[in-house]
Amino acid sequence: MTLKAQSSQMTENLVGIIDETLIDNALIENTVIVNTALESTAQSSQPLSYRHAFMLVLKRDLTIAMRHKDDIINPLLFFVIVVTLFPLGIGPEAQTLSRIAPGIIWVAALLATLLSLDRLFKSDHLDGSLEQMLLSPHPIFVLVLAKIFAHWLITGLPLLLIAPLLAVLLHLDEHSYTALLLTLLLGTPVLSLLGAVGVALTVGIKKGGVLLSLLVLPLYIPVLIFATSAIDTAALGLPYSGQLAIIAALFFGSLTLAPFAVGAALKVSTN
Which GO BP annotation is one of this protein's (predicted)? Predict the structure, then answer.
C-alpha cells in the first residue's frame, strides 16, 4: 500500500471516530443548534421574527428530548408508580379510593413536574447555550416561553393523557373525568411556568434541588387546592366553573408574568 493510500485511510478512520464522538456528545448537540440559529440571524439582513425564534427554540428542545427519552419517560413512570402505590397501601375499597383520587392524581402530577424541572435550564447553563440565548438579539422572554412550552409538551401533556387511565384504577367518580382533564389542561402549564422561575433562580447552584423544591412548592399550593376542589365538586354534581375560572386566572397571570421573571432571574444567575 502506498504512503498516499495509507494517509487517506488514516484520515477516514479519524473522521469516523470524530463523527461517532459528536453523535454521542449531548453538550455539542445543544451548542450546534443554538450557534446555527445565531449565525443565521447574524448573516441575514432581517433578524428572525419572534415566531421564527420561538419555533426554532421549541424544535431544538423537542429534538434534544427525543434523543434523550429518559427526560420524557422518568417523570411519567414516577407519576404512574406514585398513583399505583396508593391502592396497595390504603386498600382496595372503592369508596375510599374514589374520595381521595383527585388529591392522589394531582399530588403525583405536581411531584412528577417538580422532578422534571431541574433539566429545564441546567444543561443549557453547563454547555454555554444559555449565555448565547441571553446575548441573542431576540427578547429573552420569547426564547424562555418556547422552552417552557417544550417542557410542558414533554412532561405535562403525557401526564394529561395518562391521568384518565389511572383515574379508573382509583375508581374516580364518572362525573369527575371532565373536571380532571380540564384542571390538568389549565393547571399543568401553571406548574411549568411557576417552576421555571424557581429553576432560573437556582440554575447556577450545583445542588439546588432542595432549594428549588422550597421555592416552588408553596407556589403550587393554590393550583392544587382549586384543582382538587373542582374535581370533588364535579363528583357531587355541582357546578365547578368558579374553580376553573381561578385556575384559568392563574394560568393567564403566569403566562403573562413568568417569562419576564424567568428572563430577569437568568440574567442574575448567570452573572
Answer: cytochrome complex assembly
